[in-house]
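Q: My collaborator sent me two sequences in one message, no labels, and asked for predicted structures for both. Can we handle them in order? The first one she listed is below.
A: Yes, handling them in the order given. First sequence, followed by its structure tokens:
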Amino acid sequence: MKKTLFIFLIGIITFFAFAIRVFQLEKSPPAPYWEEVALGYDAYSILKTGEDHHGNSWPIVAFESFGDWKPSGYFYALLPAIALFDLTVFAVRLPSVLAGTGIVFLIGWLIYQWLNNVNEKKRFLISLSGMFLAAISPWLIQFSRAGWEVNLATFLILFGICTGWASVKNLKEKNTSFILILLALISMILSMYAYHAARVIAPVLGLFLGARYFLSTLKTEHSKIFLKTSILFVIGLMLLTPLIKSWGSPVLSQRMAETTIFSNITIIEQSNYFIGLHENTWWAKLVYHRYFFYLRTIVEQFLVHFRIDFLFGSGDAIARHSSQYFGLFYPFEIISILVGTWFIIKNFSKDKRSFMWLWLVIGIIPAAISNPVPHALRILPTAPLFIILSTIGLWQTLEWLNELPCLIKQLKNLRPYIFTSIIFLVYLTSFIAFYRHLLLVYPARFSQEWQGGYEQMIAELNLFKQQNPQLPIYITREQGRPAMYYWFYNKIDPTVVQQENFIVKKDQGEYLEFLNLHFVNSVAEVIQTPAIVVASPTQWQMIEHKDNLINIIFFDNQIWQIGINQ
């Protein structure tokens, strides 16, 4: 295959991947989740004022947000998108679309590097196949169509892997090799500013790649190895300094404290119970130590990510993480992944096998020590590895099929084309079914999972405000984070929000009031009448005197009612 044709096909598949990720981006998912509006509004605030909505100037490690301290990477990735497309759902999701498209290209590049013992034509074809499988992957598409920080982190980790691996291949071109390992270092560290789990995954994979580069360079460049290592160390230390300074503070630990199994008192209670059964003997304290219970839980939660129904059935139980139509993969890919695993165990070099096992294990560990499980979002950095296994397994399966006895001699030379066409049609048919579901069925069925209805509610609320400017406003928090949605859809001047930061009531970092708006848990907290009230139909049943009641319906779901409490 000529390189010009190869490059052309890379461009076609990359464009295809981008198109299916960006098409109807604001309609599926049907509405922005509260994490998306938080990312968008704080990026908007930084763009306009240089401060987040709490008044923190250019946060480096994390943004305070709702008090959960979100990693800063995605906020800054949003700045050019919001500058170009304003504060919109499209702008908030665009960096994830681009990262998802980049992942498709990088998977092809990594396959090309790892199949260096295969003839060039076959190497090209397998790389293109990997890109195609990545382009239509239900798992990758799901996380490329919303503002997921983990998707950006996965792109950065994968870019670091690709450049880090390529640095050893290009040792003869010394400057190119050093630039590649430097890019790998920068990319891995940047991923740690994009998503929490990357702070575990990136250092481990980065150290492996760094050690591989160092040992390979040591064989060829004794004189410059110290200089190059020193440069990498200094640059790495400079980039890591903000993270190191934040070590132990809520900026780094808050999210882990909220989700980790180590904050689960139940495990400690189990340990104490069994120790008590054996009268607190020394051996019972050893055998039933809580660390053994933690270890057992981690192993169990690690293994649950390989459940058949999770990978190939209905997917993640959290509907935001899965279409619920397919699992993370198409059902028939179980065969190609198993075959691919067998192939790499049998044929790949020790360093490749070691790296792939390390990638798999460390990529799932952050999910294994957290709740709930299994969790498609937290293990997304392993998705490229699974797709590579599936790609290699698919080609090995094709080779086996082509070696089968052919009963019709005239078809013998056509077998590769026949089998390839059949497999391509199976994938294409499955993708069309999945994509149709994602665009037409998923938004209606799971609109409430995405806090659907806020945009329509706020538009109606603005009309009520114009007609009744003197009335206070009460919005219930039933759907989550109403203040942030109000700022997002109204594009409220961030300076006004920042001025309120030190005087308003809050729940952690979430505003419970803003100007004449009050964000309450229940209509029972409405203490002023008359007032504009926004609540669910269930909450409105508790109000006796009501006027001008309007229903907010989103995909046939009656989410809100707006009216005046007399």
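Q: And the one she listed second?
A: Here it is, processed independently of the first:
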Amino acid sequence: MAQGYLMLVLHNHLPFVRHPEYDNFLEERWLFEATLESYLPILYHLDRLNREGIDYNITLSYSPTLLTMFNDELLQNRFKRHIEKLLELGQKEIKRTASKPEHALAKMYKNRLIKMYAFYQDRCRGNLINLLRELKSTGKVELITCSATHGFLPFMREEAVEAQIAVAVSTYQRFFQDKPPGIWLPECAYAP
């Protein structure tokens, strides 16, 4: 029987959303919800695997826009505020559902929020890039990039494709101090 390999590659991207001119901008919630419900839990479990000595290998792709938003102080502060508001809502839900069947569910969500917030503050030190660097250094997590804006490369002019890749490489180097070992093709699109 032929032997094969399974390669886990998780691609992470969001368009750039940052609006300092508004206190609360709807599109920034995309980042906050994706971070709280996807990016943080994945990193939490990879960190747990490391702490428990469980061997694994995974490739994570992060777009330059997403890395830049992770590293943005304004968005970091707004993300913390977002979680704090959810914690307040969670407490209200626990009180509101005290005698209802949903009470256990409200407590479960509030406890999960508390755990993710503590993980973000303590292990990530308020910036997911801190933990990404640490996970990368273990050799178990390979980090790759994606084109600058996640544009559909086959439909772009050659100069635009080169610019997309150049920005992707320089952004990766800025955050991880070396060249990316690979690149995720946006929309898995390729043209020879």
